[in-house]
Amino acid sequence: MDEFRLDKQVALITGGGTGLGFGIATCMVRAGAKVILIGRREDVVKSAAEKLGPAATFAQYDVTRMHEAPALLSRVSKPFGPVSILVNNAGINLKKPAMETTEDEMTQLMNTNVIGAHALTRAAAPAMIERKHGSIIFIASAASLFGIPYVVAYSAAKTALIGVVRTLSTELSPHGVRVNAIAPGWIESEMSATAMRNDPKRYERVLERTPLGRFGKPDDVGYAAVYLCSRAASFVTGSTLVVDGGISMGF
Question: CB–CB of 237/179 below 8 Å?
Fold first, then answer.
């Protein structure tokens, strides 16, 4: 259906070279969008863009270098045109007891997951407002929805993103720019594999609590992002779309 297509849209996706970011990029290309993959490791995003073909390009960028965000937007707009979709996906995790998590570690996760995303949004939103058209997505987490042990810094950052979405949606939506979040559960990715590799009991507990009985796939999040950025979601803003196989409601 045309309402779910993203033809003529240009999507900037942070952390786009692997995992969820690459899954989102893949689905958006299938839906007709042009995508710009952003990441700290140039070789990774370059390789990912090559896999996606002529509808993709890439740029090396560290989201914690907030002052460089405006220059990045100016630079990446040249191949395909102005960015109409921004997916703030880049993030880092930290598995550590709360009482052992330092202030520096809390700050590092907030800078990467929240403040860096806000800086890119500030850089991308003015052109969207001028054109009265745009969609911004923040990738939150199941950790935004319920308590998960040993991830206090990650939970704090991902929960903060939902507050950012609520406020931004009230400020930007009157100008035609919609702002939403996706809260994935456990998705098959490099990050989740690392988290589970040395903790088989955690893996079993996740599956036991997930009503659908499996981990999600990057495409599950990717097509949720396609929907939120499409005309089919033209009346959806300020929302958090939960893509977790039911784990936040499971027993």
Answer: yes
- CA–CA distance, 213 with 232 (Å, rounded to integer): 29
State the pTM of this model.
0.95
pLDDT band at 59 (very low <50, low <70, confident <90, very high): very high
Among 55, 34, 38, 32, CA closest to 231: 32
Which secondary-structure segment (H or E) carries 52? helix 42-52
Domains of the chain: 2-189+218-243 (3.40.50.720)
Which are the catalytic amino acids? 154
Residues 6+ apart with CB under 8 A from 99: none
Averaged pLDDT for residues 117-135: 97
Contact predicate 11/28, CB 8 Å: yes
CA 149/CA 134 separation, integer angstroms: 36
